[in-house]
Amino acid sequence: MELFSFISSIVQMAVLAVFMFLAIRLLLKHTDSLTAVFLSFFFSLWFFADIYWLVYDILRPDVRMPFAANEIGEAGMLLMLAAIINSSVPHGSRAAVKHVVCAVIFAVFNVILWIAWSGEWVQDIITGLVLAWLLASAVCSLKVVHALTKTEWILLGIYCTALLAGQGLTFFFEDPLKTRIDIGCYVLISLGILYWLVKLFMSYKRDHFAKKLMALAVTNLAWIIVALFMSSGLFYTIYINCETLSVALMYIAAEKVVKES
Description:
Blueprint (H helix, E strand, L loop, with lengths): L1 H28 L4 H26 L9 H20 L8 H22 L2 H24 L5 H20 L7 H29 L4 H20 L3 H28 L1
């Protein structure tokens, strides 16, 4: 299990190194593109945050990492991801008010769960603020490009509520019921990842316009990031590999946006 996790991390770093190079090359060809600028910073922050985490894990195995440089890098990474989508799919402050409110509420409840799990108030609140901005940016982009139908928005709200409720229930029950609820939450998280990946692949297949691809690609990556915050063990490692795949999908969408702008 530890070897699988280590290999997954190494593969992700190698993929990030490749796309960091490609993003910088894209920037050199399109120096006037803000999306290309943010994309380069995004991959660079992610790559070096992963290096820090890996080195720490090797030097101090089984020791919980405090609020450190990689956490700051990850917060910057989430901000860059929000900047990428906001520069790719411009929108007004009132593009999706109700959707943004729901996204922020979802982020707040995530922070409550993180604090309950780790007890690290400062780190979790700072990360939660950044996550709220990313989710708000993602839902605005989805709304602007009409990526979801009204029914899909309603189902997404119900789905997120069920996921948060399930995670919350794990604090009130003991095993074996707690384990069963936990597995149910992993099923919900995994189905969410599958939904966004399928929707993104279908969008690529139908050759939708670049902004719609970008909105779906960033939302997919944001959902996987949320999934990683809610997981551990084998599922965490599986989601890391999904995240690595999503990096490639996001770069393809971003490159298309930059070339068409």
